[in-house]
Model the fold of this input.
Amino acid sequence: MGKQNIYELVDLKEDPFRISPDPRFFYHTKDHDDALQRLHLSIEKKVD
Done:
């Protein structure tokens, strides 16, 4: 089965896997918010 057929099987119209991220494929969750908050806190602690 070729790449095109696999995409048709799952109803994708274009390749979601590219080198640069495409925000249309981003699925935002609370886990993302938690991770970003921890990252910000870690950076602030390191800077102080």
Observations:
- The chain has one domain: 3-47.
